[in-house]
Amino acid sequence: MEVGPTKDVQRILECPVCTSVPLAPIFNCSKGHIICGKCRPLTRKCGLCESNFTDSRNYVLEKIVEASSIACEFRDEGCDLILRGNEFQQHIETCEFGHIRCIYGNLKNCNDSLLKMGDYLKHLQGVHNLKELPNRDGKFFHVYCLADLKKPVSIARTMSCINSDKVWCGTHVKFDRNDFFTRTLFRKDVFHFSLCIIGSEMDAAKYNVRMFFKRPDDDEKSSFFDITVPVITIKKAGKEILESMHCMLTKTMLKNSCQVKRLLEGGEKLIWQVNYNILRSKPTG
């Protein structure tokens, strides 16, 4: 038997707690209502009838789900795949239209927010004060600074600390009706620069970004470092970005070429400018 991928069928099958299609193991309450294995450890009582949940498995429903054709739960975000029940879980975990965990973790009471892709920019603007920069045909620049101190104190306002990493708040630009923003972090004496698109891997593959580095007071044509790298999807977490192709500079490389100011409390303030140029990738084949 194959069940058609209708919204009515999926509504009948869904777990009443997370409202997702339940995957094995599926459990029952004492009056016959179901709960998926993911939600079972989170509650003792059924939200529909207040009866206790049991360890009794609903094997019939598990077989029905396994044999059903089910629309991806992120269809409203743009995924049009219809899958067999036994393929559903693996797809949901990797779906490019799935929810995004905020890259800024617990900053500003974010609590590792899990967001729909369509809500992500609004979250960054409202919670993390992400600013939009003007650009001219994909060209824009941003001035960065880092206090290189002898004693650890509060660094610049544009800096935050996540698990001992220094992270700059991003800047946002619109180009080709897409939303891009910079992601920059400093870890173990290495700076990491990348440009992300709020979109899927397929969206990101349409663009590269050229970055060239200069002192803020130098003329427009001067640069001490110039590199072109792929744009990265916002779906990639920080660890995945570090393993992707992006721009890396050691602190020594940057310090030898950027503007350096002495600080009264000791140490130095490093100031440099990155010019970004979003490039449309050339079609292959």
Automatic annotation (TrEMBL):
One of its GO terms (biological process) is proteasome-mediated ubiquitin-dependent protein catabolic process. GO terms for molecular function: ubiquitin conjugating enzyme binding; ubiquitin protein ligase activity; zinc ion binding. One of its GO terms (cellular component) is cytoplasm. Pfam families: Sina_RING. Keywords: Metal-binding, Zinc, Zinc-finger. It comes from the Eukaryota. Residues 15-49 form the E3 ubiquitin-protein ligase Sina-like RING finger domain. This is E3 ubiquitin-protein ligase Sina-like RING finger domain-containing protein.
